[in-house]
Amino acid sequence: MSSTGQPGRRVVRIGSLTVGDGPAVVFGGAQGRGPHADGLRLSLARVTAGDRPAVLAKARASWDGPLLAEPAGPGDLPAVAEHADAVVIGAEWTEDAALLRAAAGLRLPVIVRRAPGASLAAWLEAAGRCAEAGAPGVVLCEDTGQGVDLGLARAARERGELPVLAAAGDGAGLAAAAVAAGVDGIWLAEDAPAGQVAAAREAVTVVGALLRDERPATVAAARDAIDRTDAALAVILERRAALAGVVQRLKPVGGFAGRDPERERRIVAAMARRAPRLGERRLAPIMKAVIESGLHLAEELRGSPGDNGGEPAPGPETPAAARRHHD
């Protein structure tokens, strides 16, 4: 199965997946396959030599998305070439020029895992040799098995002009930090279950929408980016409403009666400095709706007269009612 790298900075095509442009991706093992995984990784080191071609063929038959295979030795390369969308190479391969050329000679994208203790220069040199040997695309992977150096991963992305993945072990604890550091994908352990893959996907969606620079070129891609931004916005709004509820309980006078117009103006002004194209005029009605929704929710949760027995919160106040609350 062939895959081709795409020209351009930090962009590699692996099967149907673009790595290095658009949202960060999530790779997991067989236990985590499902809608939250973009690609399936498979190491052949744990498989008996004679069974490896059959295991690869079975993985290919059960997974329509990108399949990333890590050979245990040169004898695995024909099966990798037949069934996989990318070849993963580890420390032994990066330190052996003949093995490296053999892997790159498959004409599949190559994912280069950093060898334990390898410097940034050595890591980038191995990636460069893969490209010189004919690999149509090269992706770096910060996964030494001895912890993850996100600073090094970020430096590799900046200096190497290649996509970079970062290992998050068998869970998603590092996923948010890795995306914030600028990596292009999360590399989960092969035995990470579906729930942990889903958690990594959530981290990629929320953090990536806030911090990752995307330049979609189609309507569909732009709408996908908007959906990710909306997902992050929903999380932030829920968090803001919860914090606003804490404030209402702590204030001497909470709820609508205790609103502080001057603070609300400062909030809008501060947001306008971060979003100058929207400006205060456009942000003011947005924040008014956000603040009032939080106040309605706080009243409902504490069972105040604003509680309406579990029905949806009332809509925006009338001008007369708003004046009464400010008086």
Quick summary:
With 327 residues, the chain is of the alpha/beta class. The protein is built from 12 helices and 10 strands.
Question: Care to describe what's here?
Answer:
- Residues 213-302 form the Chorismate mutase domain.
- Keywords: Isomerase, Transferase.
- Pfam families: CM_2, DAHP_synth_1.
- It comes from Sphaerisporangium siamense.
- One of its GO terms (molecular function) is chorismate mutase activity.
- With 327 residues, the protein is an alpha/beta fold.
- The protein folds into two domains: 12-214, Aldolase class I (TIM Barrel); 222-326, no CATH class.
- 47% of the residues lie in helices and 12% in strands.
- It has helices spanning 52-62, 77-83, 91-94, 97-104, 120-132, 150-160, 175-180, 194-211, 219-250, 261-274, 279-301, 319-326, and strands spanning 12-14, 17-19, 25-28, 39-43, 67-70, 86-89, 110-113, 138-142, 164-167, 185-187.
- An eight-stranded parallel barrel has the order 3-4-5-6-7-8-9-10, surrounded by six helices. The protein has a two-stranded antiparallel sheet with strand order 1-2.
- A hairpin with a 2-residue loop joins strand 1 (12-14) and strand 2 (17-19).
- Helix 4 packs across helix 5, helix 9 crosses helix 11 (279-301) and helix 10 (261-274) crosses helix 11 (279-301).
